[in-house]
Amino acid sequence: MNAPSQKNLRVRVVVPRVFLALQWKSEIASYFGMPEREIGLWFGGRKDKPDRLFMVYVLDSARTCISRHILDDVRSGHTVFLVCDEAHHFGSTENAHVFDFFPHVPKGIVFSLGLSATPEAERFADIIAPAIGPVFFRYGIEEATRHQITAPYQLFNVAIPFSSEEQAEYADATERIARAEYALLRICPHFFAKDHADYIRKLNQLIREGGRVADAAERLKRLYFLRKRILVLAEARVTCGIELVRLLSTECKTILFSERIVTANMLFENLSTLFPEKIGLYHSAMRREQKEFALSRYREGRTRILVCCRALDEGLNVPDTAAAVMVSSSSGELQRVQRMGRVLRNTQDGITKRIFHIYVPDTAESPDFLSGMGGKAERLFFNEKTNGLVHKEYDKFSNSAIRQLRKDGATENQITIALRQIEVGRIAADWQLTPELIETRLDESKKAGSREKNYWAMMLLISRERMKQI
Fold first, then answer.
1. Residue by residue, what is the 3-state secondary structure of 64-121?
2. Which of 28, 128, 233, 377 is the most buried (most CB within 10 A)?
3. Residue pair 321/295 in contact by the 8 Å Cβ criterion
């Protein structure tokens, strides 16, 4: 496609974060074969002249100026195409100022497009849809994977235990929530929500209305956040996340997501000891130049592990990322879909991506990362006493394989090597492949002189044991 005519068109893109603006700029330049210097940016201390074919704005800055810029474009005789990336962000009162120009332009002059993995966010019906337009196209993860638009993936739900202190704190918070919910329902008996996100939205609505109901709703909301804090700061999350990264290949590019900066910092410090100079950190408390440096090093492959918080939930495009560890996460579908998107970008080598969802069982936290969205997941359990992972079915077959090796006269050194491959295989689903397919992989690794030949040899033994016992 050729670059659009600059004579009568202006393209305005609005994104929620700076790194997304830089990403859009690079993609536009590459797609249209034009110099990056011709694409304007508008955020913070960077404000290019807006009289360009392409301008990319960061939302916090756009809401105070883009309507004025678009009106200037229209007065100059230009047609405007407005793209709202991560459009679910545009429903707040402040961000809706992006659309202040709409009452002042005739139809057929400004066209808009919203992009979002989960568009029906708060105030979709009364702000987002009237401004941008209704949802006219949907494309789900399962469909995209089937069409090979996104990469194939393996999903692992990893259960971790609470400490005894954490368990007691969580139980106490749950009891207090039950009492607070009863108090709220006595005042507001018709209160109802379809899911947790809707529940919090409706509590916020009651709080804004004020009065006695607002006090009860505020108390309940505080208790929910207290319980959530206990959940996301569970100590075993860090040790489990470290163990997962340790078992992944030393060539595997990995992103670890957490909900709290303190957890991200702990992961970074511990992993830096294991993998010096190979890990980066990104969160909202860092300076902009620090964050940009961390992202550029990860994109360029100078680091292979990136630890982050919510700041990278959306938009990051690093296709060679092969694994994601959800150390902690919210209960919202939005975040789950967005984080999936960080790792499911397709690559030429067709590598199968791996996603690990760490959760505490028997709590408000979902044991299924893709709950309600389809997708089969393997179930692992993290034993904090041994710092090891358990997969009951896999361990049954691998134990049988080790017994067979001993019966066949394997040396202790060979057994040690086999046990290491078993550890690595526990965080993959390769053992479920047919023996014939694994034999092909084994032959390929032997011909290539790859270190993976020991791994595939062990997976072949485990697959054969599995076939015996099915």
1. CCHHHHHHHHHHCCCEEEEEEECHHHHHCCCHHHHHCCHHHCCCCCEEEEEECCCCCC
2. 128
3. no
Q: How far is CA 202 from CA 82, 92, 365, 444, in A?
A: 31, 15, 20, 57
Using the 8-state DSSP alphabet, how is residue 429 labeled?
-
Q: Average pLDDT of 335-342?
A: 67
Q: Is the dihedral of CA 76, 81, 83, 84 positive or negative?
A: positive
**Following DSSP, what letter does each residue of 249-294 receive, concatenated?**
-TT--EEEE-S-HHHHHHHHHHHHHHSTTSEEEE-TTS-HHHHHHH
- Give the Cα separation of 396 and 390 in Å (integer): 10
DSSP state of 216: H
* Helix (H), strand (E) at residue 161: none
The CA distance from 221 to 294, in Å, is 35
Residue pLDDT, tens place only, 394-435: 999 999 999 999 999 999 999 999 999 999 999 999 999 999
Determine phi and psi for 279, rounding to 5 degrees: -135, 140
**Distance of alpha carbon 38 from alpha carbon 56, whole angstroms:** 11
Tell whether the torsion through CA atoms of 79, 127, 55 and 11 is positive or negative.
Answer: negative
Q: Where are the beta strands (DSSP E) in 144-266?
A: 153-159, 254-257
C-alpha 303: how far from its chain's center?
Answer: 19
CA distance 414 to 420: 10
CB 70 within 8 A of CB 11: no
The Cα–Cα gap between 214 and 194 comes to: 20
Give the position of tokens 């678009």.
70
C-alpha distances out from residue 156 to 124, 162, 225, 308, Å: 32, 19, 26, 20
Residue 315 pLDDT class (50, 70, 90 cuts): low
Contact 282, 291 (CB under 8 A): yes
Q: How far is CA 323 from CA 320, 339, 414, in A?
A: 9, 11, 29
pLDDT of residue 163: 96
H or E element, residue 402: helix 392-407
State the amino acid at position 9 in one-letter form: L
